[in-house]
């Protein structure tokens, strides 16, 4: 089945220790998104790639970076995690064709910062 | 800017119908979505409706769109305990900078 995969599902890191979250997709979608979701809140868009074009949301902290080496993979790098960065991180994809902007989500990575 | 509002909680008895409501502000919205999120999981796309439609039905789900009032609803018939989750309404507005604008989510609790 075509899908969005996130690894790991659970990640524990220490305060200030860099961490990388991974997302891959078999849908061949050209748009990939990273969201941060804290408890009882809506997902908050951090950035998205339209093909190779990177689009950063204005209020995304500089501590968050992303890489998309190819169509299938996208990474979220948190350079110096703080306690406030503990959250669920959701990856999503969409296709510029078809029902535009319909997003398909992965299962998420829950990040704990000690 | 765009804004999507939902009530935060809804509690229903198993077997009853659930109606989750959503209002949005951007009249240029083209697609409106309902996503379901179970505890500890990602968002699952349930259904969507295009802005030129009034209603869409898919098995137990019925979506109603009142474009004049900018009101969207999701009706779940014969609600089951497995329907307990958070339901997010979302819109796409071509005029906006954000591809998808989410509401805060409605937590549906189904009582057996």
* Bulk shape of chain A: globular
- Number of β-strand runs of chain A: 11
- Counted beta strands of chain B: 11
In DSSP terms (H or I, runs of 4 or more residues), the helix count of chain B works out at 0
Give the strand content of chain B.
over 45%
Features:
heterodimer, A: 114 residues, mainly beta, seven-stranded mixed beta sheet, four-stranded antiparallel beta sheet, 11 strands, 51% strand, globular, B: 112 residues, six-stranded mixed beta sheet, five-stranded antiparallel beta sheet, 0% helix, 55% strand
Summarize the structure.
The complex is a heterodimer of chains A (114) and B (112). Chain A contains no helices and eleven strands.
How would you describe this protein?
The complex is a heterodimer of chains A (114) and B (112). Chain A is mostly beta strands and 114 residues long. Chain A has no helices and eleven strands. In chain A, the strands form two sheets. In chain A, strands 2, 4, 5, 6, 9, 10 and 11 form a seven-stranded mixed β-sheet that branches. Chain B is mainly beta and 112 residues long. Chain B is 0% helix and 55% strand. Chain B has strands at 4-6, 9-13, 18-24, 31-37, 43-50, 55-58, 61-66, 71-76, 85-92, 101-102, 106-111. In chain B, strands 2, 4, 5, 9, 10 and 11 form a six-stranded mixed β-sheet that branches. In chain B, strand 9 and strand 10 (101-102) form a beta hairpin. The termini of chain B are far apart. The model of chain B has no long low-confidence stretch (mean pLDDT 91). The interface between A and B is medium-sized, with 26 and 20 residues.
